[in-house]
Design goal:
The complex is a heterodimer of chains A (488) and B (305). Chain A is mainly α and 488 residues long. In chain A, 69% of the residues lie in helices and 2% in strands. Chain A has helices spanning 2-5, 22-27, 39-49, 52-69, 73-98, 106-120, 135-154, 162-182, 185-188, 210-232, 235-245, 247-252, 257-283, 293-306, 311-328, 332-350, 354-378, 391-397, 407-427, 430-450, 456-474; strands spanning 121-122, 131-132, 201-202, 205-206. Chain B has one domain (2-291): ABC transporter involved in vitamin B12 uptake, BtuC. Classes of the chains: A mainly alpha (488), B mainly alpha (305). The interface between A and B is large, with 56 and 50 residues.
């Protein structure tokens, strides 16, 4: 990928980043697309000729096979969460990725969908019998209502841009949680939420199993991506990107900027509300805290990881992030696989050649054994804790990772030290980085075995924050997004 | 009337805290055009630093040093420590993104905020911690007229924040550093060409802003007693809006906005309903942002093409 980002050789004397002559560089950007050498490049060329809907259907079919691989309800739940996040990331991509409008109240549309569906499919309104609309009516009505809500929330974008719009939408998101928590407790249930919501009922069958919702979500995801792809390549999609790149210029090109912005908000809101209805139907209950800021961060992290502005990126980012993070909540052993796996994967991608990678890993183990021996000689209780994960990872690290018998205090110090070391690691270059990497890796293993593994839900949140910071600094275009060049 | 004055004092206390946080927001926004979401969490870190200073000197019921000295230590350590943390955050998270598209630093700021919150959660747990201020600053030492009670801590908070704001005002208006800060906020490239050390100036801005947030955190602990790891986000949000209501980039505006929001909040919870306080405040803020985004004391930015 790095070859794609470097300017042509003739321009190497010019300063990096936007500058004089950058317009031309941008204009030639698409023509300068390079293929990977060898077979990989051939595959790229072939893949480019396949129509988009074939790829989409193939991906959908692949997804449809997943429930055959497992009968475990919990694993299906992970799949459901992942697809919900993917749909939300795709919807967020409309306003953030395409139209360039920073919508920080997006999670409220998801909540609106869930609460809207819950109200018309439970005993909450018009007690004691309640209202029980058919799924075919309730879902479209909720989506359209959410679209109008999106227009209302997007209305300030007539005058507000950038950060100001972000903060107003953020207030909207916060206000939604406050609203559902405090207003009309008899109807909205306050902090107790709404319970016993009707499940989806489509084609005459009531969907009660996780497997059923998995397929519902898969169909919805494929449909959403298909519709949005058509929208992206339409006149509206081009208008969104024009508004994102330069609002003033696009208004001079007679693009109705305000209407285009409102459309982005409305479509995003409708997609989020759709996900919300499935969430409510599948969970059978909704609570205000389901739609608070941490979940917003999760959606953003998914979109950023995959690459804002790219549909495939948004789907992939949402899926990867959700599956990874849910894995943390399962067992310490699986969390350990993910933790060490992530570190190893990053190193494999970043560190070349293999010999250097091997040397660093070997040095880490040797370093660990030395530290372990020294610490043991000083005080045997300092190594008495043993790793808290189980299975073969535990056997592997048992003899060289120091875990005191009371790991909390030492772990806390280790965690702060680890943050400092990671920051230092980013700053130094060359051989020093390799040398510094050894104690950092070792400390990461110690802290993981000592404290992090015992607190998976917090570790998961920390990881989210780190993903946002690292992605923005290292690869703001995400895994699949195209690098954007701002013309200054 | 007494009730009104009581609520006014409550509002002034809360408002001074908002104003102190808002100053940092406003300074950082003025100089980098960056909405630093992590700023509210710096306030939370400050509150924890103050708490641990109390524990360090024997706990609130068995202090080993005189109370004024303790307060001095709390404010100095929280201010200095959180200031350094702010500088570090700018150095490692925001500086590499200075020329990136606008959305990148904003999302990074969300990430930093999330990281800070959860790191504190990991280190210190989710439980509330209690300053127990009344054990070392007795509630009786204050102004008591009939049923009207104004505790010494509230007086201390209000006076100290006004002193700090005045000091900041003088620093920005009168000193060389202040001149450099204004220059960088006006036009970073031009300031650099004229020999201003931009990186240093931005670091100092972050230090000052974060230190104020840290001090505000200690004050919050002293006044409200209870501190917890998630106290920063909403306080930060309101403080940012205080800065916007007053006019972003303007120090007097941040003070005015903070006090206005604090008093409005106290009045709403006193006279209308404490359940709806946040909802009404958010509503007012949305309306103000839409109707007058440049704020009460700010100027509307000129759009350069």
């Amino acid at each position: 990928m790095s070859t794609e980002q470097t300017p042509p050789a003739a321009e190497t004397d010019a300063p990096q980043g936007p500058g004089v002559g950058v317009d031309e560089w941008v204009a030639r950007s698409s023509g300068r697309r390079e293929y990977a050498p060898g077979r990989l490049g051939d595959a790229q060329r072939v893949l480019e000729r396949v129509p988009w809907w074939v790829i989409l259907l193939a991906a959908g079919l692949a997804g449809a096979c997943v429930p055959f691989l497992t009968t475990n309800d919990f694993q299906l739940q992970i799949g459901i969460n992942a697809m919900l996040l993917a749909i939300l990331a795709v919807g967020l991509n409309i306003s953030v990725g395409w139209a360039g409008l920073l919508d920080l109240g997006y999670v409220a549309f998801y909540g609106f969908g869930a609460y809207g569906y819950a109200l018309v499919s439970s005993n909450q309104l018009n007690p004691p019998t309640g209202i029980h609309w058919s799924t075919y009516i309730s879902v479209p009505v909720v989506m359209i209502a959410a679209g109008f809500l999106g227009v209302a929330v997007g209305w300030p974008s007539r005058r507000l841009v950038g950060d100001y719009l972000a903060i107003v939408t953020l207030f909207f998101g916060e206000a939604f949680v406050e609203f559902t928590n405090n207003v009309a407790p008899k109807t909205l249930g306050g902090p107790n939420g709404i319970v016993s919501i009707d499940p989806y009922k489509v084609f005459g069958t009531t969907i009660l199993t996780n497997k059923g919702y998995f397929y519902v979500l898969l169909v919805l995801l494929v449909l959403t991506v298909g519709v949005l792809h058509l929208l992206d390549t339409s006149r509206t999609g081009r208008a969104w990107r024009a508004v994102r790149e330069d609002t003033l210029a696009s208004s001079l090109m007679t693009i109705p900027v305000f209407r285009v912005k409102l459309m982005a908000f409305a479509f995003g809101a409708a997609v989020a509300a759709m996900a919300g209805t499935v969430f409510a139907a599948q969970q059978i209950n909704v609570f205000p805290t389901d739609f608070a800021t941490p979940f917003l961060i999760l959606i953003y992290a998914g979109l950023i990881l995959g690459g804002a502005g790219s549909l495939a990126g948004a789907v992939l980012g949402g899926l990867i992030l959700s599956v990874t993070l849910d894995g943390f909540l399962r067992s310490p052993t699986e969390a350990g696989y993910i933790f060490y796996g992530l570190i190893l994967a990053t190193m494999v991608v970043k560190i070349r050649p293999w010999l250097r990678l091997g040397a660093i890993l070997g040095a880490t183990v040797v370093f660990g054994i030395i530290v372990h021996t020294i610490v043991k000689a000083i005080s045997s209780s300092a190594v008495a804790g043993g790793p808290q994960s189980s299975g073969w990872i535990s056997d592997l690290v048992h003899n060289w990772v120091v875990v005191p018998s009371n790991p909390t205090r030492a772990g806390n110090i280790g965690y702060v030290l680890l943050l400092v070391l990671v920051i230092a690691l980013v700053q130094v270059k060359g051989r020093w980085r390799d040398i510094l990497m050894v104690p950092t890796l070792y400390l990461a293993a110690c802290v993981w075995e000592g404290v992090l593994v015992a607190q998976p839900s917090i570790t998961r949140q920390i990881l989210l924050g780190v993903i946002l910071i690292v992605m923005m600094n290292a690869r703001p275009n995400g895994l699949l997004g195209r690098r954007r060049v701002e013309v200054v | 009337m007494r009730f009104f004055i009581q609520e006014l004092v409550n509002g002034l206390t809360q408002g001074s805290l908002y104003a102190l946080i808002a100053l940092g927001y406003s300074m950082v926004y003025g100089i980098l055009k960056l909405l630093n979401f992590a700023h509210g969490d710096l306030y939370m870190v400050g509150a924890f630093v103050g708490y641990f200073v109390i524990q360090w000197f024997g706990g609130s019921t068995a202090l080993v040093i005189p109370v004024p000295l303790l307060l001095l230590f709390m404010f100095l350590l929280a201010g200095g420590g959180v200031g350094m943390l702010g500088v570090a955050i700018e150095r490692f998270a925001y500086r590499p993104l200075r020329n990136a598209p606008r959305i990148a630093p904003l999302i990074t700021a969300l990430g930093v905020s999330f990281l800070l919150e959860n790191s504190m959660l990991l280190l210190f747990g989710a439980s509330f911690r209690d300053y127990n201020t009344s054990a070392f600053i007795p509630f009786s030492s204050g102004i008591h007229i009939g049923v009207l009670n104004i505790s010494l801590t509230r007086i201390l908070v209000i006076v100290l924040s006004f002193v700090l704001m005045l000091g900041l005002r003088l620093l920005v208006d009168r000193t060389k550093l202040g001149r450099q800060m204004r220059a960088v906020a006006e036009d970073r490239e031009a300031a650099e060409m004229l020999g201003v050390n931009v990186d240093y100036t931005i670091s100092m801005t972050f230090f000052l802003g974060s230190a104020l947030a840290g001090v505000a955190g200690v004050m919050a602990g002293l006044v409200f007693n209870q501190i917890y790891t998630l106290m920063g986000f909403v306080a930060g949000l309101k403080a940012f809006t205080a800065a916007v209501v007053g006019g972003i980039g303007s120090i007097a505006g941040a003070m005015l906005g903070g006090l206005l929001i604090g008093i409005a909040e106290a009045m709403i919870s006193g006279y209308i309903s404490s359940t709806y306080t946040n909802l009404i405040v958010f509503g007012i803020l949305i309306v103000v942002m839409i109707l007058r985004p440049q704020g009460l004391l700010g100027r509307a930015p000129l759009q350069k093409v």
